Amino acid sequence: MKTIAVLTSGGDAPGMNAAVRAVVRSAIYNGCKVFGVNRGYRGLIDGDLFEMDLSSVGDIIHRGGTVLKSARCLEFKTEEGREKALNVLKVFGIDGLVVVGGDGSFQGAQKLSEMGFPAIGIPGTIDNDLAYTDYTIGFDTALNTVIDAISKIRDTSSSHERVSIIEVMGRHCGDIALYAGLAGGAEVIIIPEAGYNEDEICKKLIQSKNRGKKHSIIMLAEGVGGAQKLADKIKEKTGIESRATILGHIQRGGSPSAFDRIIASQMGAKAVELLLEGKSSRVVGIKNNEIIDVDIHEALAMERKLNTEIYKLVDILSI
Ligand code: ADP
Ligand code: F6P
């Protein structure tokens, strides 16, 4: 293993830069050359690669987003697209690739390794939707952004004695809503992994109001239903004034938390270590506070389960 390439793909996540920095510096420390690929798999197909040196990753550990840029590239989902990418990797003399991204990006890495090219995945997504790892890079920062927003919404919500519905990201995974709901003292969590009953929610809101609660916070994961529609329904069924806030892409930005920088640095170094050991088709993660690596097929086949204890705890603590 002499030359390594690194790319960031899919939705960007705070901490991706720290991961890229760790890959570049660990690889150079170990005597390798490193190439950065711009715009994820798009850049791989287009041959948009450039050599990175130690200083190319200076002053980026604290920055959100990704200096390598990210993209969603449909062409890479086709065999022809992947053949083009493989040719580019050969032409540039690349021996192994590190992919920082979510499950879609990992599927791309899996396909590349099936074509015989060594590829290692690092989990970079705010969604925390990968079952094999306790945390993905970016989740902790996004959570803190959401908690900050909840506190602000709580102020105005309580002044006006309203119900606030806060819609957060997560695609098919409710972790941002769930954990931000616990940390932000939400009354109700609505996530794709668990069903919900509108009348039960309305009953809880009325009971809370009658008990003297000034306001209620509902955390809603995207994809379960529209926040505004729910706000209208609650007003109609309970008479309580309700407001919807969709946090959107604010959750994807910002300086990464200490936790995200730390795991990104450890995972970046681990990915390089794996390539140097001649391994391929692995993804790096963190389990019980230890950096681990798992076969990419196994990792993608694992089913993500809802943390029912946390889900129940939110309910108990919000009575
Ligand atoms: P994420 O990695 O955050 O889950 P996406 O699902 O959008 O984001 O995937 C990012 C990119 O990974 C896609 O634009 C595509 O280039 C590549 N990709 C996704 N799924 C596949 C697949 N089944 N085969 C090959 N490449 C894929
Ligand atoms: O996967 C990360 C994520 O931010 C999801 O939470 C969200 O559904 C999606 O990406 C939004 O993607 P886009 O970049 O296309 O707006």
Which quaternary structure do these chains form? single chain
Distinct bound molecules = adenosine-5'-diphosphate, 6-O-phosphono-beta-D-fructofuranose
Gross geometry: elongated
Measure the end-to-end span.
Answer: 57 Å
SS content category: alpha/beta
Helix content: 40-55%
How many domains?
Answer: 2
Give the helix/strand layout:
Layout: E1 3-8, H1 16-29, E2 33-37, H2 40-46, E3 49-52, H3 79-91, E4 96-101, H4 103-114, E5 119-123, H5 139-159, E6 163-168, H6 175-183, E7 188-190, H7 198-210, E8 216-221, H8 227-238, E9 242-246, H9 258-276, E10 282-287, E11 290-295, H10 296-301, H11 308-317
Parallel strand pairs: 1-2, 1-4, 4-5, 5-10, 6-8, 6-9, 7-8
Antiparallel strand pairs: 2-3, 10-11
Helix pairs in contact: 1-9, 2-3, 5-6, 6-11
This protein binds adenosine-5'-diphosphate (ADP) and 6-O-phosphono-beta-D-fructofuranose.
6-O-phosphono-beta-D-fructofuranose is lined by residues 11, 102, 125-127, 169-171, 222, 252.
Binding site for ADP: 21-25, 154, 185-187, 211, 213-215
GO cellular component, one term: 6-phosphofructokinase complex
Binding site for substrate: 125-127, 162, 169-171, 222, 243, 249-252
